[in-house]
Amino acid sequence: MAPIYRDSPLPLIPTPKFQTGKDDPFTIEASHMALSHNAFIRGFNSIYQQAPRLELASDKASFVGYCLAWVDCVVTHHHYEETELFPNIDKAAGQKRLMDGAVHEHEAFYGGMDRMKTYLQSKGPDFSSKELLDIMDSFKDALHSHLKSEPPAIVALAKHSTAERPIDILGIAETAGKKQVNLPFLFNTLPVFFLNMETATFEGGMWHEVFPPLKGLTRSIMLRLVPMWQSARWRFVSCTHEGQVKSLAV
């Protein structure tokens, strides 16, 4: 029997709200970011844990699709930050380069993620788990360092929000986030985000059915119906659609 997913080699990061108990807009947006980053971390870990266990060519082919979806999800997230979120924060504050530190952190792991994508695209199901994990090892520390440091940087933006130049951080983030979703991304990539989000027990379950902010029919569509497309690749996720950690596929 396949083992239960575990948070290794990258540990999860806490949300600022859980750490401080505050619920101002900057703390909430930073906490949403931390939860999103944890989905990326669980995706990384699920790839890292399952790659050495794969034997069947059919499993490997689907797994490559899963890995590439994870890369696309992480890269798209950081691209939208650089092209939408950060520029609009600067515009609202009337200042420039407030999030330049985060942009430089992105550059530290982009090369490794590009190598991972190129390697998987060239090798397909013939990839070597050792070679794949070596590539992931080359950027995992830089990636995790960034994912951990960015939420506190969002909290710190509060000092730039004034009565004269208020920064509607939640509104800016919501508008920017919507721009990254199109139909191909929805069906081919987004499930790697939603289905690596454990909310049932994380931080006492305080985010369960709170984030991601999906309710009713929309929640069912995003977490149950959409993953039926490309379902072979979504077998490798770390969590169920109910936000619980599950057994790995292999």
From TrEMBL:
<dbReference type="InterPro" id="IPR012312">
    <property type="entry name" value="Hemerythrin-like"/>
</dbReference>
<protein>
    <recommendedName>
        <fullName>Hemerythrin-like domain-containing protein</fullName>
    </recommendedName>
</protein>
<feature type="domain" description="Hemerythrin-like">
    <location>
        <begin position="33"/>
        <end position="150"/>
    </location>
</feature>
<dbReference type="InterPro" id="IPR053206">
    <property type="entry name" value="Dimeric_xanthone_biosynth"/>
</dbReference>
<dbReference type="Pfam" id="PF01814">
    <property type="entry name" value="Hemerythrin"/>
</dbReference>
